[in-house]
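Translate sequence into structure tokens.
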Amino acid sequence: MPVNSLQSADLPNTCQPLPFATPHRLATVATLFGLTPPPLEQAKILELGCCEGDHLLGIAQLLPQATCVGVDLSSLAVAKAQATAKAVGLHKVSVHCLNLLEIEPDFGTFDYIIAHNLFSWVSPQVQEKLLELCHRHLATNGIAYLSYHTQPGGLMRGALRELLQYYTASSPEFEQKQTQGKAILNALYYATQNTEDAYTRLLHEEITTLGKLPAHFVFQDWLSAPHYQPIYFHQFIDRARQHSLTYLGDAFLPTMLPGHFPDKVAQQLTLFQTDLIYQEQAMDLLRNRTTRHSLLVHQHSSLNRELSSNSLTAFYLASSLQTSAEHPTQYQHPFGSLTTQEPVVQAILNHLAQHWPQPVAYSKLLEIAVAHAGPLSEDTLRILNNTLFIAYTKGLIEAYSHPLPMITDLTDYPRVSRLARWQARQGKARLTNLRCESVPITDQIVLELLPYLDGQHRQTDLIALLQTWFKAGKLTVEIQDHPASQVAELTDSQLQELGTNLLKTILHSLAQVGLLDA
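Result follows.
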């Protein structure tokens, strides 16, 4: 069984940036539901349980004029966050070592409050304090984000946690617990393989999920955490209401809609459509959902739940939907697929794919459609808007109320954000991109080139640098049909061509993972 060290934001204190928990995503959901969220550019943002600040600093690089405040109980984590903010030049970031229970009423008011993966791992007293803080310190039109583990998915995970705690209780040392715990998971993994029993398949899937998580999270943080309290969605909403907070929506809005289910299931879910909480709770049961990303606003907020095919016309859209020469009308995505015969829709989807992950304004997409097909008829425009909206409800297209500071077109002076360049210099295996995601960069040459991608070096300078690396043997090239034992003598012209092609490849790969700064 693969009990690997793969990253996840699914356990306590993972300290990973998370794109769902950015003000950009929160403002988008609020706008879709008829609210006017606080402006992003100079917003005041609070993250509770910010750990070493990876997520907060990721937000700060997206919104350099915003005031970003972090709170964490670990003095070591706070010191690391402060040091990183200073090194990167994010001067409007401040991080405080505080117990949530000690935060006073005069702490300030914030437009966006974020508490990722904290609620399920603290005592009931701290949970109540967390909701109280969201009510007391949230601006009038502010938005709070809280993620938490949910039932019914948490039932199986909780059972596995208790099982591992039981079987490793006699091992006082972490290394012993880890060895014994891995052995138990491995045994359970193989025992539940290739079975037709529904319960056993579910157990096998949960064990597989645990096996993909970092070992120290599973066997140290997760097992030793004094509190683990998954909660039903409706129970969380009831507790939020007690603090005069109401449910805005999920940070990943498509999960609120029945479109992910087969038509027969979606039709049955319409029985609950008059009560959003009932409907979403029913969908949690059908999905065996384990985690939620809930957005809360003040109870007085006036929400408009009516979404239509024209709901996205004021937004920026992004999608990685890809087609192929063999099937030009079929577009594939990790969350599903889309088939369209409409040339205008195809032109727009192809443009989004070419510029992924950069969001493109809907108005710009309309210009592309007109350039492709001439003035659009009402029927064509209706088909276009309806297709884009359905794709959004299925998670195939992302929507943003504000642009992200990334580019995919290569400039003469390419630049990667200061935060990502600093992380590369520290030898980190994962860098924070401009979508507030943690992306792996394993190519050593790319990592060594990153400090020079500061917007001060022209592409010609970078090509010359790569040429010197070739000459110094820092970079090597394999030549087809050339004996490996013989050193090939390359001309300056050949080295320049190699450097040019390599730089283009590197910059394109960085653009594809959202690391090229505008």
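Note: Residues 1-13 have pLDDT under 50 and may be disordered.
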